[in-house]
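Exercise 7.
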Amino acid sequence: MTGPRILTPAEQQRLDALQLCLDDAEPVLICRPCGYALKPFGERVGRHLAEKHDVPKPKRRGLNGLIKSIGLADPNDVPLRPDGLPPHEALLTVRGYACRHCNYRTVSLDLVGRHVSSVHGFKQNRKAHGWQRDHVLEGVSLQSWSQNGSRGYWIALPPTPTSPSHWVDSLPSHEASTGQRALLAAAHDAERARLASRLPAAATDEGRVDPALQTNWMRRTGWAGTFEGARRDILATMTQLPASRNSSAPLSTGLHLGLDGEGDPLISPPEDEARLRCIVSAVDGLLDRCEDTIRHTDVSIRCWLRSSEPQRPYKAPFELVSRPSTTYRYRRYIKKLLCFCFRLWRLPLGPRLSQCRRTLTVTQSRAFQALWSDSVWTAVPLHNTSPDNRSSPESPVCVESTSTDGDGRRTIQTRSATRPRATRVTMPHTPSLADKAQRASSPESTSESEIDTEDDEEDMSDMESEEGRPRSDDLEEPWDSVHLPTPLFFHSPCLYGFIGQETADTTSVMAIEDLVLRLLFFLVTEEFEYGQSNTTLLVFFSGIIGFTPDGTGFQRPMNYTAALSALIYCARLVVMEALLPRTSHDYVGYPARPRHSQLAKLNAVRREKMCLGSQAPLGELLSLRDYGRALARADGPRFRWNWSDDGQALHWDDGHLSLCQFRSISHNMLEQTTSAVDKLMYGWEPVFTPARLRDRMANTSPGYSFISEPANGLHEAYLGLSQRASLAGLDGLLSTDGWIRPRVRRYLDDCESLLSKLLLLIYLTGGQAARVTELTSIEYQNGASTQRGVHVHSGALVIVTRHHKIRKSTNKEFHVARYLPDTVGKLLYIYLVYIRPFSSMLRRVCFQAAEDESSLLFASHSSSNSPWPTTKLSRELSRATTNLLALAINTRTYRQVSIAITERVIKHISSPFNMYDDKSANAPIQSAFAWQSGHRPLQRASTYGLDGAYPDSLQPALLEKYRWVSREWHRFLQLEPSV
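Solution. The predicted structure, written as tokens, is:
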């Protein structure tokens, strides 16, 4: 096809007068007012001018002939222009939508929705497919030759955008209905009223060669002799917690402990596991009461409780652990202890001796029998046993063979036969620890406790083995003659007949908790036999938790002392609850704390059972922990690495990471977070000028932050995002009928996903990696008694952490400032100023959330008062590194790697500095200012006035050093340094 002929100047002038444009590249005639090409056939051009633009006939005379002589083509036959060219100056440019998967373009939201649904299979009501924006480009500039784009559109490259404004300069392309606007206006009015009521206050109130197997360590623990010949795999399995009813493990098969010497399986029956589940469940309730007792105990008593010396208290009081994850981990040790003890006791004598190399004394057996056979179990349903096969409390662990032990006193049961093991009878009473404590607190009292914790030395004196040591299992009398202690408090025979079932269940649970307390008190105060600590079950159990995961070796002291701390912590809770409970334990006869002489009652037991050198488990655990900590310091670090010859790659146990890969972790997370922010902001990019932001760092008034600072004017900036997101034509959150709850819910989920990305990004780019608990405890605004951790200083956002690992021990806080790169600071700024308050508004408006929210930055919206667990950041980092590098790196490994890189590549960052140094060769010359005033720098800083614009512990000199360190880290990561 030949192109159109060249027009004469007179012809071009006539077309221009009629506002007709002849395209130089394509043979089409475009009507400028209409913005589309006209068909050049017949009289269509003239008729169009007459009907659409009222052009008089004299001006149209001869026009059709002229058009015909030019040789124009039908616009429907002219190919579409390529995407990305500048807009055609004569064609109409419209805002529309483009499919991400094909070349479909349209200006209709309904049509593009139908297209992606029918052609690409995207269903809007399927949450798994995500947002429509994942499949559709919104707001693209479209042009077409034909009217209404009937022959298709192309994407015109838009002109260079102007700098974005702080507020929304125009509504979304989709025209919002009156109903939408009314609903949104009402929501905004409510938000403004809420902000107005709060603003004044916020503005005016301010393994084989293992270092663990060192001779000294193994000599001190005695584990080689304690577990000689024992099946460590079976011992470790015996400490497992029973499967819950909600777990996938079958409950009808019991717990497989392992195979005995003849290859027969050792199984803890399902009936025993059901009872263990009840006992383990009671531990939580009991320890809750223990913690309540500690909370209502004075500091002086808690200092004595923490002391390991007989005659003086510790300098700091015993404190409850602050992290729920630590509480959970500590309680697991006590639950494992109980499970191990009962399974060991229920194990037949033959396997116990041959596989576990462990015996039990009469006193120990009586203690377990007292709980296992108590009458309270008659009122407790064991859910996973049927009425016809529910065993009696005397049913032992099963092996799949029938035999008897050496002395013929106990039957090793087969699966088809059972034999009762004991009958519950009373035991003669002898004075106990509780009696001693009671007499210490009440000297005039002559009544004796009926709780039996006596040792059986008199009964055992003639039952020694060839080595002169008693075999404790030989000391066990035949089971039908074992006498057991009865509880002090006897329930009425009609207790469960005259009260409701719910009350009966509660009473049974409390009775089991009391029985568990009595047993635990016995275990933590059990006296050594023949002066050997491993004769007590608690010390024996502490050795089992010292096994390596595969059971082939023992843990290093560095890894093991934390478990000892957990046992010591829980033991102190138990002792305190048994001696000085806030409320009485009537079922076992432990009275509530007396009004006077509480310290005498505590020390009567503490000096004998809880101090270094005492002949009880706690004395051994305290000594072993101290020795382990001292040895761990000489044991060397657990993490060891090697550098490649060129110094560009780091190797450790099973990992390899180059410096380029290390940098890519931060860059990739920055890209992901930026994309997530853009989606939640609906494409809006507000201005970020941190140099103009005002922040009074020393302001500790509740609710204050740079967002609420009046000079910044940011307190209601999020309403701009609210307008854009609510009235957007694509994925808008508001319709004429109200809020679209599924979209709102998805938006809130995306906000929480963004927050987890921000946490990881700050962790990666804020300098030397922080402890996770330090980051997750950051507050974005001041609390009632806490200070915020997000500041603006020197044109950058700063994260300040105030929590140190040993803060409770030293009573000192360690302040660390981490300056963020501009790119990261901008994302955090947008989240705090726009996304977070808007998501809070959505929860209030759509889901009636509480008005007051926690000031914690990293917390779920469903539980805003609880910081995220440390595992959340570790999982996020592991997921990110796995997807990027096919190498899972958790937070512990990342901290080690980042420190290794710092010491090798950025040596000057890791060099120590002393801001009060005035003697060394590297001392700053500014020290002379302090000399002139007759002071040393430290005295001058601690005695004389400080800059009131900064916190006392973060003065400008220290902040400047932290800023320099952060910038060096940003430079290494090849991120834009803070200004």
